[in-house]
């Protein structure tokens, strides 16, 4: 049975370590507070990929702490806001997006091993991995709306890819379900629920307990060596356009009337709807993943400038509570 404490560390920084699991497979372990995705972790992961995983044949992303990842490092984000350095976000958000693009298109297999809280940026990394081995007790969600934002590491883009070919007249229920996944920040209650939400697919594996998760992830990664991972090429998708945008906007208005979302959520929801629909002005059109990422990034930065988003971030960092404003 694998235990990271008993493996050799081949590279490390303060916030992460790379372990040798044997058999040509390594494991990237997050070590930051709450396993949050810090700038240092992003740089470390990119460097590992640029250096051919230090010669390993494949990589597992996993840990043995309480949770897989609490998400992005909000304190670093708030520091830039306080210094009025919004110019820095263009590069930092793009850096995270391109890191996940590289994970998705990497030539060697990368398997995520999520468990416990797998939220926000942590889930975005897991979604871009080539496969996942999740524990049954996995609480997975893109929860950025709670702090006034939207997923900006490719999470909104990955949701938009699920909109491919949907017809607003015939697929309204599915469109609204995908929209709710982000607007309501739905968190799975277990791995089966995560699969229903689209965070795990039929090829992914689920283990009952912590013991054996890393072994299963290592074996799956080993099995994938030499087989080109799916999704390595940039895809083009047809998004439904204005009709779907109007549908999602009307759905958000209804949620507001029912008291399920707050007024600022409505503003955030319009940004999400525009990304998922592709446009709020034109009909169905074809988009590349990069075009969707560009819109995702622009919307995220616009939200960062909003005073109500800044209030939410400050409240969450001070109290751990979400502000409904």
Give short descriptive properties of this protein.
alpha/beta; seven-stranded mixed β-sheet; 45% helix; 15% strand
Describe the structure.
This protein is α/β, with parallel strands linked by helices. The chain has twelve helices and eleven strands. It has helices spanning 39-50, 74-82, 87-105, 120-128, 155-161, 172-183, 191-197, 213-224, 242-257, 263-277, 289-304, 307-319, and strands at residues 8-13, 16-22, 25-30, 58-61, 110-112, 116-119, 131-135, 138-141, 205-207, 236-239, 285-288. Helix 2 crosses helix 12 and helix 10 (263-277) runs antiparallel to helix 11 (289-304).
Which oligomeric form is depicted? single chain
> So how many helices?
12
How much of the sequence lies in strands comes to 15-25%
The averaged pLDDT comes out at 95
**End-to-end span in angstroms?**
48 Å
Residue stretches low in confidence (pLDDT < 50, at least 5 long) are none
Strand order across the largest sheet: 1-2-3-4-5-7-9
Give a summary of the structure in a few sentences.
By secondary structure, the chain is α/β, with parallel strands linked by helices. It contains twelve helices and eleven strands.
SSE topology sketch:
Blueprint: E1 8-13, E2 16-22, E3 25-30, H1 39-50, E4 58-61, H2 74-82, H3 87-105, E5 110-112, E6 116-119, H4 120-128, E7 131-135, E8 138-141, H5 155-161, H6 172-183, H7 191-197, E9 205-207, H8 213-224, E10 236-239, H9 242-257, H10 263-277, E11 285-288, H11 289-304, H12 307-319
Parallel strand pairs: 3-4, 4-5, 5-7, 6-8, 7-9
Antiparallel strand pairs: 1-2, 2-3, 10-11
